[in-house]
Amino acid sequence: GAVGARGPRMRNLERAVAFGWRREGFLAALGALQVESGRLTDAERSFTILIREYPRNASALNELAYLALVRGDRGQAEALLRRGLALEPADPDLRANLERLQRGGP
């Protein structure tokens, strides 16, 4: 099933990232799969690399904000969401997540 396919998919994405081909997309896909698989530390590493190499990737900032929130760091989550909104002011996900965070929600 889908759960069993995660391992090979993750290894393929890791190889693609290592080769550097379409790195931005593959890093994003790898990070998302790592989140889905519960490998949050690995996901945070992938999204951190992504934002370091592609600093205008607002989706990566949104994902890092989620991971910061999971760790209990609401301040960092808010800062990351604000940084994402500075890049993409009309992004509905970033805006909704910031509003939810400011209301005290998860």
The N- and C-terminal alpha carbons lie at a distance of: 30 Å
Structural class: mainly alpha
Strand content: under 5%
Radius of gyration over C-alpha positions, nearest whole angstrom: 14 Å
> Quick one: biggest sheet?
none
Outline the fold blueprint.
Elements: H1 2-19, H2 23-36, H3 40-53, H4 58-70, H5 74-87, H6 92-102
Helix pairs in contact: 1-2, 2-3, 3-4, 4-5, 5-6
Description of the molecule:
The chain is mostly helical and 106 residues long. 79% of the residues lie in helices and 0% in strands. α2 runs antiparallel to α3 and α3 packs antiparallel against α4. The model has no long low-confidence stretch (mean pLDDT 90).
Key terms:
106 residues; mainly alpha; 6 helices
Summarize the entry for a quick read.
The chain is built from 6 helices and no strands. The protein has 106 residues and is mostly helical. The model has no long low-confidence stretch (mean pLDDT 90).
